[in-house]
Amino acid sequence: MAALRIALRILVTLLVVAAAGYVGWRLWDYYTLSPWTRDARVLANVVELAPDVSGLISAINVTDNQKVQKGDVLFVIDQERFKVAVEEAEAVVAQRTQALRLAEDDSRRYASLRAPSIDAVSAQTAERAAIAAEEARAALQESEAALAAAQIDLTRSEVRAPANGFVTNLTASVGDYATVGRSVISVVDADSFWVDAYFEETQLASIREGDPAQIKLMGYSQIVQGTVAGTARGINVSNARRRARARDGQSHFHLGAPCAARAGAHQDRSRARRRSPGRRYDGDGAGRFRPKPPVSFGAAMF
User: Fold this and answer.
1) Which terminus of the chain is more exposed, N or C, with fewer CB under 10 A?
2) CATH code of residue 202
3) 220 lies in which domain range?
4) 242-273 pLDDT tens trace
């Protein structure tokens, strides 16, 4: 019996030591060997919207922090002047169309009178008629271009959302005068979110392009999935170690040395829009970045 108790003590001791060793090894792997970081930020592109025409703001269709879809009308600049300009340009086009018709008729008439069998007008007169017809044609083209410009100004008096996102920095009111090139409203591009994170140099060997990633946002229990997309270089950050980026469910990361990993979800770079240099929403955060099994890191939402 005494021998059995001794054997049990030895067995329990060995099990405890083995369990402690396994836990210690897992902790060492988790905190030392695996690529993870608490130094992370959630970022997004901020699109600053400035009107392409000047005028009084006649309507604002959104409120600050409102969610908008691409193409939604955000605000309208008074359209009366632009409608009048279009009508004026249409009248000029109509007038010059008739002038061209008359000039072409004169040119054909004088050309027929220059036939060898008739020879009723001089060559100089016929040539002047032909040149007048060409000048009338050019004048019509000029008026058509002016009409197109007036229609563009009328269309752009409605300022629309260039991307899906959230309204921010709405500083204007109905009756304010909007000036060309001066920002009136901003939209946080909802399709441009990513996460920047910094890593130690010793962790980069475990991170590969295409690796799955996990992002844990501070204050949220949901794990955001991402994918390592590449390596960024030449990052100038005073406290940089290694940097990474990520976004949401279908994301892509970029890593660099000091590296930036980026995870992006269906970002459309082809949109013609005005971006504010260096403007973006961000927030410090914490988390873990692990490549295989899935890379994970956490970050704070702004």
Assistant:
1) N
2) 2.40.30
3) 34-46+190-300
4) 444 544 443 333 333 233 333 333 333 222 33
- In-domain check, residue 27: no
At what angle are helices 80-113 and 123-155 packed, to 10 degrees? 160
147 and 213 in a single domain? The answer is no
pLDDT digits (tens, 9 = 90+) for 214-240: 888 888 888 888 877 766 676 665 544
H or E segment to which residue 111 belongs = helix 80-113
61 and 118: one domain?
A: no
DSSP string, 176-229: PEE-TT---EEEEETT--EEEE---GGGGGG--TT-EEEEEEET--PEEEEEEE
How far is the C-alpha of 53 from the C-alpha of 41, rounded, in Å?
A: 37
Q: Are residues 63 and 87 in the same domain?
A: no
The whole-model pTM stands at 0.66
CB atoms within 10 A of CB 236: 6
Query: Strands 55-60 and 40-49, how do they pair?
Result: unpaired
* 116 preceded by a cis bond (ω within 30 of 0): no
The single-letter code of the amino acid at 118 is: I
> Do 39 and 61 lie in a common domain?
no
User: In this structure, what token pair is assigned to residue 21?
Assistant: 């060793």
Nearest Cα residue to 173 out of 75, 93, 302: 75
Last residue of a domain, one of 155, 175, 207: 155
